[in-house]
Amino acid sequence: MESLYLLIPLSILLAFVIGFIFWWTIRSGQLDDLEGPSWRILHDDDKLPQKNRLKRCRKTKKS
Questions:
Q1: Neighbours of 53 (CB within 10 A)
Q2: Burial of 9 (0-12, 13-18, 19+ CB in 10 A)
Q3: Has this prediction a pTM greater than 0.85?
Q4: Positive or negative torsion for Cα 38, 43, 44, 47
Q5: I need a labelling partner for 35 at 20 to 30 A (CA). Which of 12, 16, 44, 63 fits?
Q6: Residues 1-51: pLDDT tens digits?
């Protein structure tokens, strides 16, 4: 019974901390775009500027 005097306030405090962290992520925009990064990784980068292509070619030739 004595352990409940400690566990109940700790669980309430933990619930408030989790709620605050969730509220902070919503307000800061962490969860705005969930699908964008997963689609962005599939885009092909064939249309790189000429400078980047030359740098990439030079790096591959050296190795």
A1: 13
A2: exposed
A3: no
A4: negative
A5: 16
A6: 899 999 999 999 999 999 999 999 999 988 888 888 778 777 766 665 666
